[in-house]
Amino acid sequence: GQANYAAANAALDAYAHHLRTQGTPAVSLAWGLWADASGMTGHLDSGDQYRMSRQGALGLTREEGMALLDAGLRSPEAALVTSKMNFPALRAAAAEGQLPSIMKKLVSTPRKAAHGAAASEESLAERLAALPEADRRRQLLELVRGHASTVLGGAPVRPEQPFKEVGFDSLTAVELRNRLATATGVRLPATLVFDYPSPAVLARHLLAELLPEADTADEETPREPAPVAAAAAEEELHRIAAMDADDLVARALGALGN
Fold first, then answer.
1. What CA–CA distance (Å, rounded) separates 34 from 67?
2. Which candidate among 17, 72, 120, 137 keeps its CA 20 to 30 Å from the CA of 66?
């Protein structure tokens, strides 16, 4: 959520590499999360902390941070990541097919997770096709609510409750999109929770995508997603674009490190 810092830091990383090629000592350290609150992290609540831990980042103590600083200054590398990683969480993400590409060399990816989305889509579609219509909707609704609850740190989400009402923002919206895309094999937009603003509406959309020939009419669920105010939608898209830029910078840093 700090793409502006990521862009500036990428420039400093490149400058450190440039200085090294000129024979000038230089090192750029990409710090992970520190346990002590600061001006950049003081606003993080328990949900943010849980999300970062689930995605592999643990807080550094002052002692750990200073030890990493000393190690970085002694390193022959121009750019390093100094972070405390939650490896059980990384392995769990790899098993679910949710591990970011920049971290794939840190843990092994189970063969099942490496098969790709196509197999997942076929398997889920076949299971749904064998169920009565009401059970199809129920299973997909449970899938959506389960992933939404995980993203929010275990908070329950009611079927008709708007995603924005329970605290979804651009970061958690994209995470939910990624998790559902992996689980269903359906190509989903980054604006998913704003286009289909409740679990019930989103579940019906997923059913239509997985089984387009099935009759998914539901008198209790609207056929069209509730409209989103243009200004609010534009603001969210800008925030999502910033996060995606952050991801691109992270990938570039990984390439530099290799």
1. 13
2. 17
